């Protein structure tokens, strides 16, 4: 059950998360992810918890002692079965960790007749390990969402005609024939045809890119209305999307090498406890009463057992993660929660994260003798039947489109037709001369807008500026992060001019534009080398960077499945002010967690000499342990308290209160 059960044999770079040599709940890639109540990984911990509760209830109501003992023993066996066999195997291979400490504590408690305590330890540890195991399984299954963007088949141009082959059989230099609305099977260069290509799956750019001969296209992109002939520059098995999968897997592997804080403390503690207990028993047998010193050795073992340490972190993490869900913050593991409280830098994707991912008309400039309403109405009439995202932005801005006839769409350029008997066109400045509007078009482009020119009767009549606007709370969220001492960086696949214009509005100075997925991942790697870094995104193209970050955060329930599964934290909403709230919550939980660990270690340090010199007997040691456990639990439960200080957008005072909460 435990991911620490065996550990890798000869591959130090392979994390324990991917080693299931001793996991009874082992799954293979072809198996579907079961719902939680049917998950075999959760079965034994659930049985352990039910038996433990039944045993305590039987004792409390005055039931037979034998029945209570049998129920507690059953809970102990069910919980222990998930980690004790693996702990033994790891010990035989010279590896120690929290699992071995739990085994020692359980055995010691049973030897001294405290089956209830042993059963409680077994249940708590088994359920914590099972939940983390399930989170890792979800991450592995989520990678399928990436590869599903590659079509199953591809149409190739041959001398004898077009043939359809499996996409994985595409080879470099093959000529792909991609029709309107079809996905591109692998990376390539357009050799014939013009169209607009939706690259949002790979670059994150929400507005389709116009492509023609000589221009590169990426696997997984969706062709627009024109037909394209594309020369493959990568094999069907080795393209942009397969590279994303590989990067995600490598990033998860590197993150898996980080041991949890409790485990780092426990490893050196194990040999000390074992040597101390054995020394007490052996030396006592040589120089004193063997029976007395054997019992004292067992008392020493219990005194030094990590009962409170074992629950110091889980109880805090479980409480904090549970309450975070009330903010719409889904934290997938204890490790993710610990790291979330250390973040010093944030990398934010632009499209769909800082922006709405919904292009809107933001400016309309006209020639001297044409009204704004006429320009918009003509453009809306031309674009009424188009499926282009910019077309939907124009039609949404007009109540009554003009009646345009003889409409003809020219792929990659625009739309032409006739209005009141006159020829009209709407499209790219590369197709329609801007004439007297040239300076206006340049200024709008400098402001990060996509431009649609409208031509009436052969003359430029107006320019429509369209932009994916920022979320209204973006500037407030960035300001709150900076006041918390967090540096903010923008990563985007969009062009540099648009990215810089939007970054200036929210106060971000570090902008990395025109980034492919592997370049985003490299930027995050560079940042994490300087300080713990969170990556925030919502698209498939963000998956490698999300996995490479100290903490990956997926924004929005409508974000891609790959982004959500690659991230360690997911926000069910899209309110960017959740980000500083999440950091404040995690920092507070981390402080509580650190206090719990310090208390647990202090108990061991104090009890050890008292047990060794016989100042405290078994009853006293057990009493102190129980009190310490209650104290740790009560302190850990404090992490569930929420300090939500955020107000609605425009309230003005929200940011300062967020910062105060973060520093509290």
What's the short story on this structure?
The protein is an alpha+beta fold. It contains 23 helices and 22 strands.
> What is the residue-averaged pLDDT?
77
Helical amount among residues, as a percent range? Answer: 40-55%
Classified in CATH, the superfamily of the largest domain is: HAD superfamily/HAD-like
Beta strand count: 22
CATH topology of the largest domain: Rossmann fold
**What is the level 1 CATH name of the largest domain?**
Alpha Beta
Basic shape: elongated
Strand order of the largest sheet: 10-22-21-20-11-18-19
> What is the radius of gyration computed over CA atoms, rounded to a whole number of angstroms?
31 Å
Measured between the Cα atoms of the first and last residue, the distance is 38 Å
Q: What does the largest sheet look like?
A: 7 strands, mixed
How many helices does DSSP assign? 23
Question: Secondary-structure map with pairings?
Answer:
Blueprint: H1 43-60, H2 65-80, H3 84-92, H4 98-111, H5 115-142, H6 144-147, E1 153-158, E2 161-166, E3 175-178, E4 188-192, E5 195-198, E6 209-211, E7 216-217, E8 222-223, E9 228-232, H7 240-256, H8 261-287, H9 290-303, H10 307-324, E10 329-331, H11 334-340, E11 345-349, H12 350-354, E12 355-366, H13 372-383, H14 389-396, E13 404-410, E14 414-419, E15 422-427, H15 438-446, E16 450-456, E17 459-470, H16 474-483, E18 487-491, H17 496-506, E19 510-512, H18 517-530, E20 533-537, H19 543-548, E21 551-555, H20 561-566, E22 569-571, H21 578-612, H22 618-637, H23 654-663
Parallel strand pairs: 11-18, 11-20, 18-19, 20-21, 21-22
Antiparallel strand pairs: 1-2, 3-9, 4-7, 4-9, 5-6, 5-8, 10-22, 12-17, 13-14, 14-15, 15-16, 16-17
Helix pairs in contact: 1-2, 1-5, 2-5, 3-4, 4-5, 5-10, 8-9, 9-21, 9-22, 10-21, 10-22, 11-21, 13-14, 16-23, 21-22, 21-23
């Amino acid at each position: 059950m435990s991911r620490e059960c065996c550990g890798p044999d000869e591959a130090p770079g392979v994390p324990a998360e991917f080693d299931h040599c001793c996991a009874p709940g082992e799954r293979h890639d072809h198996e579907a992810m079961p719902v939680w109540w049917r998950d075999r990984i959760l079965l034994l911990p659930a049985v352990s918890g039910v038996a433990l509760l039944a045993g305590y209830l039987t004792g409390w109501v005055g039931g037979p002692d034998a029945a209570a003992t049998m129920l507690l023993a059953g809970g102990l066996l069910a919980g222990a079965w998930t980690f004790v066999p693996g702990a033994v195997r790891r010990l035989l291979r010279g590896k120690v960790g929290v699992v071995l400490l739990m085994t020692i504590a359980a055995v010691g408690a049973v030897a001294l007749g405290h089956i209830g305590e042993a059963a409680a330890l077994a249940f708590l540890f088994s359920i914590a390990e099972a939940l983390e195991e399930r989170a890792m399984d979800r991450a592995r299954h989520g990678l399928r969402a990436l590869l599903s963007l590659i079509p199953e088949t591809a149409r190739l141009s041959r001398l004898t005609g077009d043939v359809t082959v499996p996409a994985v059989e595409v080879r470099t230099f093959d000529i792909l024939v991609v029709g309107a609305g079809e996905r591109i099977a692998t990376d390539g260069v357009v050799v014939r045809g013009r169209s607009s290509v939706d690259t949002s799956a790979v670059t994150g750019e929400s507005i389709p890119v116009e492509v023609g001969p000589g221009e590169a296209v990426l696997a997984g992109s969706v062709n627009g209305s024109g037909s394209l002939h594309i020369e493959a520059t990568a094999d069907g098995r080795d393209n942009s999307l397969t590279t994303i999968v590989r990067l995600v897997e490598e990033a998860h592997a590197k993150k898996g090498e980080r041991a949890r804080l409790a485990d780092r403390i426990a490893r050196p503690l194990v040999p000390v406890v074992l040597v101390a207990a054995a020394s007490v028993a052996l030396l006592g047998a040589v120089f004193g009463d063997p029976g007395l010193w054997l019992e004292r050795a067992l008392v020493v073992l219990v005194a030094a057992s990590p009962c409170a340490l074992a629950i110091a972190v889980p109880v805090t993490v479980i409480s904090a993660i549970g309450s975070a869900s009330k903010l719409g913050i889904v934290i997938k593991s204890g490790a993710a929660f610990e790291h979330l409280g250390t973040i010093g830098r944030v990398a934010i994707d632009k499209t769909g994260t800082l922006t709405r991912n919904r292009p809107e008309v933001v400016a309309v400039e006209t020639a001297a003798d044409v009204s704004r309403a006429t320009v918009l109405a003509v453009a809306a009439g031309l674009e009424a039947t188009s499926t282009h995202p910019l077309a939907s932005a124009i039609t949404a801005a007009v109540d009554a489109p003009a009646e345009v006839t003889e409409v003809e769409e020219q792929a990659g350029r625009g739309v032409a037709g006739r209005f009141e008997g006159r020829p009209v066109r709407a499209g790219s400045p590369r197709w329609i001369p801007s004439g007297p509007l040239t300076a206006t078009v340049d200024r709008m482009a400098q402001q990060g807008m996509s431009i649609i020119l409208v031509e009436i009767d052969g003359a430029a009549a107006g320019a429509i500026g369209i932009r994916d606007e920022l979320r209204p709370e973006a500037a407030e969220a960035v300001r709150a992060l900076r006041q918390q001492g967090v540096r903010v960086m923008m990563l985007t696949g969009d062009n540099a001019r648009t990215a810089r214009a939007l970054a200036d509005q929210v106060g971000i100075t570090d902008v990395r534009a025109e980034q492919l997925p592997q370049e985003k991942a490299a930027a995050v790697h560079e940042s994490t080398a300087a300080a713990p870094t969170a990556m925030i995104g919502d698209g498939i193209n963000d998956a490698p960077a999300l996995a490479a970050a100290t903490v990956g955060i997926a924004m929005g329930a409508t974000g891609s499945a790959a982004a959500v599964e690659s991230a360690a934290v997911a926000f069910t909403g899209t309110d960017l002010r959740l980000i500083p709230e999440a950091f404040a919550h995690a920092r507070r939980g981390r402080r509580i967690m650190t206090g719990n660990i310090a208390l647990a270690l202090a108990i061991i340090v104090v009890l050890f000499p008292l047990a060794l010199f016989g100042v405290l007997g078994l009853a006293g040691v057990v009493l102190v342990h129980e009190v310490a456990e209650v104290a740790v639990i009560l302190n850990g439960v404090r992490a569930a308290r929420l300090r939500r200080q955020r107000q609605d957008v425009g309230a003005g005072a929200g940011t300062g209160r967020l910062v105060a909460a973060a520093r509290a």
